[in-house]
């Protein structure tokens, strides 16, 4: 059975198009509604994006729409949704006809699984940056790179049936492209497709002045600073968007957050966000710096192109032994939970091996980065913790030496001049005999009277050594004081959720955390493991490096999503009042609802067609049910 054979009952609300038979609604958003339709001329199923009426009722909008659609239609890349057709200016409806995809958005995957393993996220980035690089070469800027505009198709591992597919559909109904030969199906990554959609839509909206109505600002955290300020943009705006997308994939939340769009926009413009490594230590320093490079608020400080960012991702994936990024994505899609468990078990050994290599070539910084990331995966590994502590102490000593070396050089130079001057004065003031005697042992570091002057010491080696030690003690090289244990404070700039968080220090039993009070620890390295009461959050490990200064941490635990089952009227659509951009399914399958800042959330569920509303209490990790068919 093919995708084209399914013929659901059509509603009168479907648009009437001259060349396409509209079959069913697939989804809708702030800019368009997407339908599955049958191409009456070519006999294939397609996806038709019909622009909302409030966007089409402008002659200038229609003109711009046609120009931009034709520009996007030039793009031919395996990671870009292909455009087949565009409406004419004379048609009532304004629409794009694109290839039909049978997959899931990256947004939905993030809602279901939370943060992805960093290597899986980077592998997705490799695919998308290849698409962006091609588009930029053709003079097309996306302007709205975000998880909602990324679709992943995944075919099961079973070999496809041997039958001739219809044009545009596979026998399995999974892909919109013909099935690959059986030999190619054995290649890692052959069973997936990653597509970037909606090129140029943001520019179309902005060209009509829709920005002022808030439509484009529906995703302010994904927009580059120069785009927010209305400046001309180039491919580096998409590089910024990819930085935001990959940060969310690796960390589990957006880099720029706020309680309202204005606050988010201000943080984007100021470049204010917590580093990925600080938020999610398993991301590691290398990936965190790649993201920082992409997220620079200054255009010239970012990667110069999508290709340059793609090369950076491929370089680190290769260093970590990921030979096939597509194979990495495919393995994760096959079994997300199993892949994560195997990945977390394998990464400490893999990272330690890379850390060993860096040590052998004398790159202590790279070595420390790998070992610290390994410790984030295995915070209770005593041997690894000891090794990281030793490396961090060594690094701290080198940093202190690097800071004090210029001052030490100046002090030694001053001390040398002082000794020379005093020696000259002493030779002039003493008799020749005295001069001979004092030349046997160096002068003391401070002037002394003749009554206090030491006796000749030429015949006493011990005395010579003692005098030499006295002179070889400039202030900057003073003998260190005996080591003593010191305490320091670990304070918390942010703790989310605000209540119910527990912390375990160095493997001790967890205890409730009071975010207003500091933890008192000694100067050694420590491993902190944060969790939530009743297992409502995913645990988070943080490493406190050795030192004598206090530490400030931002702790954001990912609260487990709630599950919401809606018994609704077939064909109707449902949204939460505080998240109208993400429609929910009214089936027996539970919707995964993110719980951003709290474990319990009371919201209003709205049936769009009737505007009927019901309150629902969502609880992290639990299933809630709402009945719109026979409401109480």
Can you walk through the features of this model?
The chain is an alpha+beta fold and 632 residues long. The protein has 5 domains: 100 residues, Phosphorylase Kinase, domain 1; 204 residues, Transferase(Phosphotransferase), domain 1 (Orthogonal Bundle), CATH 1.10.510; 56 residues, no CATH class; 70 residues, Substrate Binding Domain Of DNAk, Chain A, domain 1, CATH 2.60.34.20; 66 residues, no CATH class. Helix content is 37%, strand content 19%. Strand 1 and strand 2 form a beta hairpin. The two termini are 41 Å apart. The N terminus is likely disordered.
Q: Keywords, please?
A:
single chain, 632 residues, alpha+beta, Transferase(Phosphotransferase), domain 1, 5-stranded antiparallel sheet
| Separation of the first and last Cα atoms | 41 Å
Q: What proportion of the residues is helical, as a percent range?
A: 25-40%
Report the β-strand fraction as a percent range.
15-25%
Class by alpha and beta content: alpha+beta
Alpha carbon gyration radius: 33 Å
Task: Please state the second-level CATH architecture of the largest domain.
Answer: Orthogonal Bundle
Structure summary, number of beta strands:
22
- Note the total helix count: 17
Biggest sheet character: 5 strands, antiparallel
CATH topology of the largest domain: the name is Transferase(Phosphotransferase), domain 1
Low-confidence stretches: 1-11, 159-185, 204-218, 428-482
What general outline do the C-alpha atoms trace? globular
Number of domains: 5
Average pLDDT over all residues: 77
Q: Write the CATH homologous superfamily of the largest domain.
A: Transferase(Phosphotransferase) domain 1
CATH class of the largest domain: Mainly Alpha
| Widest beta sheet: strand line-up | 1-2-3-5-4
């Amino acid at each position: 059975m093919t995708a084209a054979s399914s013929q659901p009952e059509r509603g009168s609300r479907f648009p009437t198009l001259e060349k396409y038979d509209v079959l069913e609604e697939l989804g809708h958003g702030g800019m368009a509604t997407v339908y599955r339709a049958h191409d009456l001329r070519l006999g294939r199923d397609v996806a038709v994006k019909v622009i909302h009426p409030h966007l089409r009722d402008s002659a200038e909008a229609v003109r711009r729409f046609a120009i931009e659609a034709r520009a996007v239609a030039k793009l031919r890349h395996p990671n870009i949704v292909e455009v087949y057709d565009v409406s004419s200016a004379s048609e009532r409806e304004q629409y794009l006809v694109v290839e039909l995809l049978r997959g899931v958005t990256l947004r939905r995957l993030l809602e279901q699984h939370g943060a992805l393993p960093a290597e899986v996220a980077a592998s997705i980035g490799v695919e998308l940056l290849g698409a962006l690089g091609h588009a930029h070469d053709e003079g097309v800027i996306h302007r709205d790179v975000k998880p909602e505009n990324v679709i992943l198709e995944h075919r099961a591992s079973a070999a496809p049936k041997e039958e001739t597919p219809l044009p545009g559909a596979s026998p399995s109904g999974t892909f919109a492209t013909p099935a690959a030969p059986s030999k190619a199906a054995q290649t890692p990554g052959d069973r997936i497709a990653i597509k970037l959609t909606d090129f140029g839509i943001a520019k179309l909206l902005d060209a009509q002045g829709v920005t002022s109505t808030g439509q484009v600002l529906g995703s302010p955290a994904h927009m580059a600073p120069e785009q927010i300020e209305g400046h001309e943009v180039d491919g580096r705006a998409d590089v910024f968007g990819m930085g935001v997308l990959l940060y969310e994939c690796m960390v589990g939340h957006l880099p720029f957050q706020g309680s309202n769009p204005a606050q988010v926009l201000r943080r984007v413009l100021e470049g204010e966000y917590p580093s990925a490594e600080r938020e999610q230590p398993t991301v590691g320093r290398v990936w965190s710096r790649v993201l920082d490079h992409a997220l620079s608020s200054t255009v010239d400080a970012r990667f110069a192109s999508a290709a340059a960012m793609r090369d950076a991702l491929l370089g680190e994936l290769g260093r970590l032994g990921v030979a096939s990024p597509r194979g990495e994505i495919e393995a994760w899609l096959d079994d997300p939970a199993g892949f994560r468990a195997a990945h977390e078990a394998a990464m400490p050994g893999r990272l330690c091996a890379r850390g060993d290599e860096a040590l052998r070539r004398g790159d202590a910084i790279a070595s420390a980065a790998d070992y610290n990331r390994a410790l984030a995966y295995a915070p209770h590994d005593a041997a690894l913790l000891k090794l990281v502590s030793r490396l961090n102490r060594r690094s701290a000593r080198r940093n202190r030496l690097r800071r004090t070396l210029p001052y030490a050089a100046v002090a030694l130079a001053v001390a040398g001049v002082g000794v020379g001057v005093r020696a000259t004065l002493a030779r002039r003031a003493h008799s020749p005999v005295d001069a001979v005697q004092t030349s046997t042992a160096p002068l003391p570091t401070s002037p002394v009277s003749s009554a206090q002057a030491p006796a000749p010491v030429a015949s006493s080696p011990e005395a010579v050594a003692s005098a030499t030690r006295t002179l070889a003690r400039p202030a900057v090289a003073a003998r260190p004081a005996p080591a003593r244990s010191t305490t320091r404070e670990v304070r918390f700039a942010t703790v989310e959720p605000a209540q119910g968080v527990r912390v375990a220090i160095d493997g001790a039993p967890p205890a409730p955390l009071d975010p207003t009070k500091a933890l008192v620890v000694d100067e050694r390295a420590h491993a902190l493991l944060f969790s939530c009461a009743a297992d409502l959050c995913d645990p988070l490990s943080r490493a406190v490096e050795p030192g004598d200064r206090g530490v400030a941490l931002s702790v954001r635990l990912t609260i487990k999503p709630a599950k919401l089952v809606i018994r609704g009227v077939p064909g109707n659509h449902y949204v939460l009042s505080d998240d109208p951009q993400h429609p929910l399914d009214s089936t027996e399958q539970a919707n995964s609802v993110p719980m951003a800042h709290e474990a319990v959330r009371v919201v209003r569920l709205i049936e769009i067609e009737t505007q009927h509303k019901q309150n629902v209490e969502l609880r992290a990790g639990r299933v809630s049910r709402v009945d719109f068919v026979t409401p109480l």
